[in-house]
Amino acid sequence: MASVCGDCGKVHGEISRYFMWRIPQLGMDAAAKLVAEGDYMCRVGNTRYFISCELALAFTDGDEKPLGFIGWVEVSAAAYAAYQHYRAAEETLPPMEAWMDGRLANPIPGVDDSLGTAVRFEVVCGDPTPYITWVQPGTALAARVQEGATVAFWHKAAGLA
Predict the structure, then answer these.
(1) Contact 119/28 with Cβ under 8 angstroms?
(2) Per residue in 84-110, pLDDT tens?
(3) In a domain, 10, yes or no
(4) How open is the CA angle 133-67-77, to the nearest 5 degrees?
(5) Residue 159: what pLDDT?
(6) Does 118 reside within a domain?
(7) Interior angle at CA 119, CA 85 and CA 101, nearest 5
(8) Does residue 114 lie in a domain region?
(9) Which of helix, strand or coil describes residue 68?
(10) What is each CA distance from 3 to 15, 17, 18, 139, 159, in whole angstroms?
(11) Domain that holds residue 131
(12) Per the structure, how many domains does the chain have?
């Protein structure tokens, strides 16, 4: 139901806190060759590998729940194989101690030049979406993570500003 927003004064419905991409951002040729391996892993042939991850962006005021950006991270073939092996037997294996490296394969809305930003993510047993825990310093995304979410940014990310 639409109502007047107390923050921007415009009429709009409730704004989602979660932004999700079903596939990595690829060209048409690569997207046509995309092979899904479950809901959270995919690859383009044997050349490009992707794992679905989440970036949680906390609000600066602390009263709001964080924004969640669930997208794809491109990883190396070795990282993909290690992740696939872990997920196949995670209940019987010790926790993955090392963070995994990759690059964002979807842009974060409202953050210029975020596509391709280097990230590291933590794999948690039983949680199908690893959490991005490190973002390349000196990037627009690192600045946004450090600044945190604001209502104005939330509106921008949702395409309302």
Answers:
(1) no
(2) 999 999 989 888 888 999 999 999 999
(3) no
(4) 40
(5) 80
(6) yes
(7) 35
(8) yes
(9) strand
(10) 11, 17, 20, 36, 17
(11) 16-157
(12) 1
The rounded distance, in Å, linking the Cα atoms of 33 and 44 is: 6
- pLDDT in the model for residue 61: 76
Give the chain's mean pLDDT.
Answer: 90
The DSSP result for 31-67, as a single string, is HHTEEE-SSSEEEETTTEEEEEEEEEE-BSSSSSPPE
Instruction: Identify whether 86 is part of a domain.
Output: yes
Separation of CA 65 from chain center: 17
Burial 2-36 (b: 16+ CB within 10 A, else e): eeebeeeeeeeeeeebebeeebbebeeeeeeeeee
Q: What is the mean pLDDT of residues 139-157?
A: 91
pLDDT in tens, 12-49: 677 888 999 999 999 888 888 899 998 899 999 999 99
